[in-house]
Amino acid sequence: MLLIHPPAAKACEPPAGIAHLAGTLRAHGSVCTVFDANLEGLLFLIASARPTGDAWSRRACRNMAANLAALRSPQLYASPARYQRAVAADLNHLIEIAGLRHNLVINLANYQDDNLSPLKSCDLLQSAEHPQNNIFFPWFSSRLPELLADKAPSFIGFSLNYLSQALTTFAMIGYIKAQYPGLPVILGGGLLTSWMRNPAWTRPFAGLVDHLIAGRGELPLLALVQKKDQGHRRPDYNGLPREGYLAPGFILPYAASSGCSWSRCSFCPETAEGNPYSAVSAETVLGDIHQLAAETSPILLHFLDNAISPALLRAMVEDSRNIPWYGFSRITAALTDLDFCRGLRRSGCRMLKLGIESGDQTVLDTMDKGIDLGMVSRALTALKEAGIATYVYLLFGTPAESLTEARKTMELVARHHTAITFLNLAIFNMPICSSEAAGLQTDGVEEDLSLYTNFTHPRGWNRKEVRRFLDQEFRRHPLIAPILRNDPPLFTSNHAPFFC
Question: How many Å apart are CA 270 and CA 97, to the nearest integer?
């Protein structure tokens, strides 16, 4: 089996999804090849960029090799200004130049085609029908035949997790079907799962893709290769690059759980899609991590969980062998304990991502977040005192919020500006499957694969007003603006730990 992580997504760490599947398949005696087409494809675009005649593009092309080397070196991250120029100004400009020739908006973190939408199945099928129009075609039409001739797989699988991957995924599938019509194609991943969990799903790819997999893929893949499940297996990164990612060393991604242990937040896609929670024991996680660390020599461990469980946090504190790490955590009473936070720091914790969402208690209660603002304040203070950076996520425009509540969120951030290292600001989208949407006036959507639906805000706090507040008040607040400037461009939280 050949498993592919397609372009385009951030290429700073290896794809955990296909590594996890490879670990399961190989442990059960099945031959499996993993291929990070995203990394190779983006490097191809960078290398093939040519100056457009202006001084900026000439400088970017001239410094391409030096900037790539710098991005893979720890020294660059000691200078935010140099990082900004190397990443956002020069390397990203090379990707943008390539995109302009194809009427695309493409950068190191995103891919957007003005003519084709990844939310329309007809456009995805068109991408499959005309793969030669895809910006990555000159590369994958050469690379895939080499790989298939060498590995001769019985199945080829694509892991589709982000909208930015969808059009190229289908272009690659279309090419495979045209050139190798007898080779079965498997499609899975987080984005496909979201589409298939929608009650309005109509199987639009039935004539193109042989096997569609929603949710965790281990059991369906084992069934395809006629193997019986024998339980948990750790990910296997053999076959993926150890060097070459856009980071100052190998980052080890690891998921200790899937789904969300809380699963009560209103309007949450995890809840709306009914994704079940499943966790690996803390003892098993530590065993996996140390074995993988011995194999890959990572500089950073990235927990991919929606929220690292309290049991695993405690186990990390008690384990003295941990490498530097970061991930998402719910705010709990444990994070208000300074001694516990210091234990996390000694365990290697460099940064915690925290979904605070709002600075108004009524909004939090309406969303059923299960946290109170007193706990938030104490946790931020304890983490700051312990030396752990925080990447705080805020959500504006939920049905319970108005300008008044949004200003309370701004006041919360301002009060704790010394304890908040990075900020992520998001405007609320209504999940199309959300049960709460039934009580609101919705406008519907034109795209058959849309994940969200338009709605009329019950308090008049619509997207236009939210954007105006964020642009004219929140981002200009003298205590908040410096926090926003901390965020690494394009790679954001994936590179943030290197600046802590």
Answer: 37
Q: What is the pLDDT of residue 262?
A: 79
C-alpha–C-alpha distance, residues 476 and 482, integer Å:
9
% pLDDT > 70, the chain = 99
Tokens 């009329």, located at residue: 456
Rounded to the nearest 10°, the torsion over CA 379, 407, 266, 282 is -20
Peptide bond into 223 cis (omega under 30): no
The three-state secondary structure class of 493 is helix
User: Residue 16's pLDDT band (boundaries 50, 70, 90)?
Assistant: very high
| Residue 445: pLDDT over 80 | no
CA distance 283 to 256: 11
Can you give the pLDDT at residue 272? 65
pLDDT at 276: 83
Residue 327 to residue 301: CA distance in whole angstroms:
9
Report d(CA 336, CA 67) in Å as an integer.
Answer: 41
Cα–Cα distances (Å) from 99 to 48, 266, 498, in that order, read 12, 38, 29
**Contact 350/391 with Cβ under 8 angstroms?**
no
Residue whose C-alpha is closest to residue 76's, from 423, 500, 499? 499
Instruction: Return the SS3 of 113.
Output: strand
Per-residue DSSP letters for 169-210?
Answer: HHHHHHHHHHH-TTS-EEEESHHHHHHHTSTT---TTTTT-S
Residue-wise over 111-142: b if at least 16 C-beta within 10 A, else e? bbbeebbbbbbebbbbbbeebeebbbbebbbe
3-state secondary structure (DSSP) of residue 449: coil
Residues 464-468, mean pLDDT to the nearest whole number: 97
* pLDDT for the residue 218: 94
**Alpha-carbon gap, residue 306 to 374, rounded angstroms:** 23
The Cα 258–Cα 280 span in angstroms is 9
